[in-house]
Amino acid sequence: MEKCQFCGKPATVHMTQVINNKTTVIRMCNECAAKHGLFDKEGLPFAMLSGLGEALFSGMKQSLSANGLICSKCGCTPMSFKETGRLGCPNCYKDLKLLIDGIIESSQKGTIHKGKYSKEGTLTATMDPTNSFTDTSIQKPIRKPSTEEKLNELQEMLDAAVKAEQYEEAARLRDEIKILKGSGGIS
Amino acid sequence: MNDFAKKLFQDSKLAKETIPVVVSSRIRLARNLADFKFVKYACKGDLHTVAEKCEKVLASCPIFTKSTILNMGDLLDYEKLALVERHLCSQEFIMDTNESKLFFTDDHLTSIMINEEDHLRMQVFRPDLNFKTMFDKINAIDDHVSENLNIAFDNRYGFLTACPTNVGTGMRASVMLHLPALVITKQIGNLILAVQKLGFVVRGLFGEGSEAQGNFFQISNQQTLGFSEVDILSRLTQIIRSIIEYELNAREIVKKERIIWLYDNIGRALGILRGCYCLTSIDAINCLSLMMLAVDLGYLPNTLRGDLHQVMMKIQSSHIQVLENKVLNSSERDVKRAELLREFFVTVPNLKFD
Ligand SMILES: [Zn+2]
Ligand SMILES: [Zn+2]
Fold first, then answer.
1. Number of CB pairs < 8 Å for A and B?
2. Average pLDDT value for residue range B261-277
């Protein structure tokens, strides 16, 4: 009988994951599977539980060169990611890029977002004609720029206004920046 | 019944409109507010602000006019678990209920977790396979949310999530299938491997013990980055359609080659459900799975289909405790479960084998 790879008890749950043609088999006992959110204590599969790879694979593989990185906004490091399996804040995607790209390579097939709001514009459907899901009309609303993007834009406008000696405009922009800075920011 | 029980047991559309093989489908989107740390790293004050902001925006969303909002911290343990059993929220959501809130509509077809591992986990359900309708619905909620909140998004990575395995679309779509004939004919193992090779995840128990788990399997997408929502949903739909076909073919094979075995198993299961005085949830689910098969094969009236799903919900451990309004140990639950099942199956007509 095969053993649970987490605790060594007899394995009752077998899972196979195929990522980029690499196959990984996981063997677990009921308790460890439950711990990883695969099903509830009494083994009822009826409850739909959240995504599989999430709990199991996050952070298992990561490039060594990612050591020494730290997120300037939240202090998250590759070590803390390894411990919690979670990132600290949206800015981690910038400051821990090396780590993130490593995880993405081992867990995702794609590298660039192609879904909603993506640069590719309207979503196109490429599926077989017998499929009823042939919708190409999913609208792409204009995304509201983030506070940071807006600030950058305003700062550029301000610099331009100062350069052009349009002081009234510059004062207005400076006020706008002040208000925006007061409304958000990671605390 | 107390208020919580009423909300939990109010008629779920999910149970009423079921079709053979497909138990239910779900789409879930993960979103985060750009200006706050992710949940695991945020301080209590931040989580409180996030919850307040999200609640305000969601309350103004038309879909939530008839809905319930719960402060998860106010609930008893078995109440929280009952919400998981009803798939209104995830197991992880109830582990730490600090500043977490749950929205769900009266029809139980839409629910939103605030402060799960992402600030927002929005989900829609259906009792059948219709991702187009579901996606339109969840996309409209998402539009409302992104118009009113500053959502973390990056042109290359897409929607930013606490775990990079959800980044991109932030979307997880899944279908719960009832596949008794593929288990009986031992084709399920190969099928699961084939589905996994296509980049989708199958959760279910196989090897030994698989037949004891009610033959339910959940299939979901693994990849969230590099594919559009429509691509993911249409691929999943294709896969599910072929699995349904395999299952229906396998049922024909079972009927042809193992009819006595089938009659015997279905007949005994009904006997157990009518006569039991103490039944574990696994045994109950296993028997109920055979009753669902009996309905699909025409041995029991079609009108029972929705009722069977509702019974299956109701006999789960935490549902029983909500119903009884107190904590019960496992043998007390087994007794109460048997009582509920006897009550229901006494009214079920005899099997009509062809
Ligand atoms: Zn184990
Ligand atoms: Zn960070």
1. 279
2. 97
